[in-house]
Inverse folding.
């Protein structure tokens, strides 16, 4: 996976507009937002799902870039004063702090459109219907029925104590939707699979998407800002419900482990070709930052 991550970094750097190309300030800010940081979990999941379906690496490069551009744009906008108003991301000043708010807004806008430009390029897929499915998958995961909708629920819930089902509903959209899209896009990149395989991959992604947020909440409660690379304890200060505030830290950790085990169970019918997906489930739950 280290080799895949290196490949992803190279693809991102190549696909992003050059910093010396006009408008230079915007392009510099875009590269600042995407490069030099991040776990690249979503691209890694796409590559791992691609192993199940024998997907061409070049196609997975494009999918990975599209996913990471959407993810990075969401972080840039999430950190802005009108949202969570954070000053640190990936161990460095957030984009609106390093540049300015207007530039940060344009960075997010540009990255969102660049994601769909990458996925719509001619020749990405032999089958146009599959490529349209890929575009639709990313669009739905990014919009009001996915990430943006989840963020809206999160903002509305500030200062409100959510029930466990309400919290889960929010994070299925805010965090889980793009993770599920990553796995599906990887699966669409290779040989066509039957419904059972696609369903198993989607269930795996659903478990991992929730587990990722549960672990994030646990780390936010236990870790330092220096360790996380972002402001620790922010949700508690802002009065936001988290898995830790709703369940307590021990139960939240137990839930993350249950989701990890469930992810492994749904992968069993796929055999050894899903080994990397299993390893990523372990990484998501047992990571320390």
């Amino acid at each position: 996976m280290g080799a895949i991550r290196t490949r992803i970094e190279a693809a991102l750097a190549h696909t992003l507009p050059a910093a010396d190309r006009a408008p230079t300030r915007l392009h510099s800010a875009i590269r600042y937002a995407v490069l030099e940081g991040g776990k690249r979990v979503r691209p890694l999941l796409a590559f791992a799902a691609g192993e199940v379906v024998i997907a061409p690496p070049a196609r997975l490069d494009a999918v990975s870039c599209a996913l990471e551009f959407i993810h990075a744009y969401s972080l840039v906008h999430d950190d802005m004063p009108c949202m969570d108003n954070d000053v640190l991301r990936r161990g460095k000043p957030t984009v609106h702090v390093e540049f300015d708010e207007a530039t940060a807004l344009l960075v997010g806008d540009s990255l969102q459109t660049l994601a769909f430009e990458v996925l719509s390029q001619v020749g990405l897929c032999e089958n146009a219907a599959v490529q349209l499915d890929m575009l639709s998958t990313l669009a739905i995961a990014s919009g009001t029925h996915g990430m943006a909708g989840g963020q809206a629920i999160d903002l509305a819930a500030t200062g409100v104590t959510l029930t466990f089902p309400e919290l889960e509903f929010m994070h299925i959209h805010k965090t889980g939707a793009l993770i599920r899209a990553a796995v599906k896009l990887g699966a669409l990149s290779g040989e066509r699979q039957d419904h059972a395989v696609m369903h198993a991959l989607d269930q795996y992604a659903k478990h991992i998407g929730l587990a990722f947020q549960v672990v994030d909440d646990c780390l936010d409660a236990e870790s330092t800002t220096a360790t996380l690379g972002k402001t620790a304890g922010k949700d508690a200060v802002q009065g936001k419900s988290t898995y830790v505030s709703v369940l307590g830290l021990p139960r939240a950790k137990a839930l993350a482990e249950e989701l990890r085990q469930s992810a492994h169970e749904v992968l069993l019918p796929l055999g050894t070709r899903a080994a990397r997906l299993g390893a990523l489930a372990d990484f998501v739950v047992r990571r320390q930052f």
About this structure: The radius of gyration is 18 Å.
